[in-house]
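Protocol step 4 of 5: obtain the predicted structure for the target chain.
Materials: sequence only (see below). No template structures provided, no constraints applied. The aim of this step is simply to have a reference model before the mutagenesis design in step 5. Sequence pasted as it appears in the construct record:
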Amino acid sequence: GPWPEGCREMPGSASAAAAAAAATTLQRTYCRLLEDIYRRCCPEKLGNVPHIMEKYKGMEPEILDKAARMYVFSEGRDREHWQPWIEGMYKRFNPEKLQGLEQIL
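Step 4 output (structure tokens):
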């Protein structure tokens, strides 16, 4: 489907089209993951995601980690809060391990 505003492809260098395409795909993936966190945990801040992605461009792994620690795995959050997010990550990135998730957790 169409990408949410702020997660659209960013223009890349014509001389490095393949690298730019890979970077764009990675940026969109981080953007979608960050949006998922905000949608589930603080929907009132969902509109900030495009600004965050632009402001911290190149730091996507750090931003996702910080948001996950702050909103998903923060103190006082029980398993019912964070397990759906982990399951979603496994479904998307490591589906063959999804059946063994209970042992992993």
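Step 4 remarks: The CA atoms of residues 45 and 85 lie 18 Å apart. The longest helix spans residues 17-41.
Proceed to step 5.
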